Amino acid sequence: MTSPEIISSLREGNQGIIHSIDGGSDLTSRLAGMGLVKGARFRIAQVSGGMIIVQVSETRIALGRGEAAKISVYKIDPDEAVCQPTIEKEITVALVGQPNVGKSTIFNILTGLSQHVGNWPGKTVEKKSGEHRANQALIRIVDLPGTYSLTAFSEEERIARNFIIREKPDLVILVLNAAALERSLYLLSEVLLLNCPVITAINMLDVASNQGIQINPKTLEDQLAVPVIPMVARRNSGIRELVDEICAFAVSGEKIRPNRPDVSPDHRELYQQILETIEPLVPEPYTVEWAAVKIMEGDPEASDLIKNCSDSTAWKKIQNLLSEHEDALHAVVNGRYDWIEKVTRASMSRFKMGEVVLTDRVDHVLTRPIFGIPILLGVMALVFFLTYSAGVPLQNGLSDALQQFAGFCEPYLTDWPAWLRGMLLDGVIGGAGSVVTFLPVLLIFFAILAFLEDIGYMARAAFVMDRIMHLVGLHGKSFIPMCLGFGCNVPAVLGARIIETRKARMITLLLIPFVPCTARLAVLTLVSAAIFAENAALVSWSILALNIAVLGIAGIFVNKALRKQDAPFIMELPIYHRPDVKTIFMVIWTRTVSFLRKAGTVILGVSLVIWILSYFPTGSVEESWLSRAGQLIAPLGAPLGLDWKMITALLTGLVAKENVVATLGVLYGVGKDGLSQVLPTVMSPASAAAFLVVMMLFIPCVATVAVLRKEMNSNKWFFAALILTLIVSYLGGIAAYLLVNWLCHSGLVCI
Asked: Edge-to-edge strand order for the sheet containing 126-134?
């Protein structure tokens, strides 16, 4: 590997590794969000007119000459075995914190585009991991789910504490919220019991300062006896210091001996007795101190652990001790808050206590039903307006470009076998290609929703909707997963975990399949525009309103049938803050990549299978294998005015809703003409209305169904959800067909 040089000195095709970026925090942060970080390997894709195009992974980044001059790199040979700076030390770091502390911002800055997103083994909770290289150290970062405590009452809490206990990361980075330090320290008090090395990053110091809260990081460090890194992550402040601290720990391996909280003085004897009783019983990798405290708290998992490892005499002794001290839980909690009070009294001061801060003034309006509900309706209307007013023209432009591409390719394919030419034009371009045109609509929706989540508005939306949601048998918290459902039903199903009671959570899961995701909305927009022309907007909004009405009616019906008991509404309302561009970008990036991956794999595969079945054995759709299968289900479509091709398209939507468009493109052989020209010739307004209603209310995609089954963990509830969607969608489609037919024939409406 050569000595460092400026990236602008490299030529097209040269490869290298980023050595350093000296353009300040703004440039470093911006490049990090795009994957250009220290240690990243790159290729010079183009040098032209003073501009440099750098390719990192699958991303191409354009750099001006001024920006390029601030980036120092190692030039490497493409065949060079050493493609990264020498790694002398590897370290696994667990990133822990409560929701809304800026943990995701820190993770995104450190890992950039090197992060990997999946699910925890056997769980449907999202698992995020990534890497950061610095100072000859490879830092493997695992971003644990946001959690308020480690009490194991929720899946997120169990995952966080089990990872720390069983996987034994080399280091835990606990992110503290400077604006809510006491609450963050409560989580730290639990983490310290696990006897793992801990570094704290105290974030959002700017927010705390605006609220009149001043924190002395050095005093806080002295009180905790653990390293404290002051940070404003969204400004990239403190990131370098945090990395340096991690690297220093990786090299030295120095033991960190924190000051830990104790139980209340009046219960320390009880704690010692439990400690002595269970000491020979606690298996690896658990600690005796952690087990003793958790038994005093009444933690069911810890209690079962000790019960299964002890004889009846020892466990009976523990039970007798606890029965004599029924307030043991309070002794643990009070001990922690005594410790927190001591720490904060020494390190924190408030200069403007009692002053009404910005969040209070805004919430005075947004959380009052008289103002909050109309504002929420306006916000959601604006979301859909911006999504479709900006997204649909872009979608149409992309569709036109796709048709032009098909027309361009056609002359070059004349010598190809008919089946191969048809597979490319109708199967790939007409099928999967039609789905890619949804991308502008999805991107805009993802961006707006990520923005609302990041600034803290969605929690207020849940608050003001609580009373209304109760009218339809839902909890106020159900509004958040419902909103997520407009993007994709899968995260909506996962988001239902915030609902405490099982019955309320089951009802929410039962109704989520009726929430129209962006894929359904994109199909709705495309078909409406093709069939109803200038009335497309009216038809789309009418069907969407019908969808919401069905959701409400189903909620009322289920609520009355089950006579569900209302659960209390307890939810954090985070402080309003300026949006973090990097966090929003990473949300958009992750969801976009997921969509394109699905379009390039599942949807493309289904499109090709559908095309093959529709072409062979004779080359005619009407005489194909798919036609023969479709004729069997054709009677189901008769009451809705749908032929077998339309029914088949709806059924392939079970794989992914985007497949509805892909299948229509294949079966009707749109090729270079596009669906917008072909659909009006095969669908009447009545059959199109029935088709759209069924598509909007039908069983969701297989990914949603799989997650739904796992989250419900009940065959009764799961099959009830599927049967409900089948009945409602079919009856709704028949009603729409009859209504539009009557309106057209009576002359009341001309669609």
From this structure: 116-119, 126-134, 137-143, 89-97, 171-177, 198-203, 228-230
| CATH of the structural domain 5-76, one choice from 3.90.550.60, 3.30.479.10, 1.10.287.130, 2.30.30.90 | 2.30.30.90
Residue 129's Cβ-count burial label (10 Å; 0-12, 13-18, 19+) is middle
pTM of the model as a whole: 0.55
For residue 228, the cross-strand partners are 200
Residue 88 structure tokens: 């002398």
Residue 353 confidence (pLDDT) above 70:
no
Q: State pLDDT tens for residues 713-745.
A: 788 888 888 888 899 889 988 998 898 888 877
Measured in residues, the chain has a length of 751
What pLDDT, in 10s, does the model give residues 354-401?
Answer: 444 566 677 777 777 788 778 877 887 787 777 767 777 887 787 778
Topology classification of domain 89-252? Rossmann fold (3.40.50)
Task: Print burial letters for 430-443: b (CB count within 10 Å at least 16), e (below 16).
Answer: bbbbbbbbbbbbbb
CATH 2.30.30.90-classified regions of the chain? 5-76
Distance of CA 48 to CAs 11, 51, 455, 717, Å? Answer: 10, 5, 39, 61
The answer to whether 640 and 618 are in contact (CB under 8 A) is no
Question: How are the residues of the chain apportioned to helix, strand and coil, as percentages rounded to the nearest 5?
Answer: 65, 10, 25
Rounded to a whole number of angstroms, the distance between the first and last alpha carbons of the chain is 70
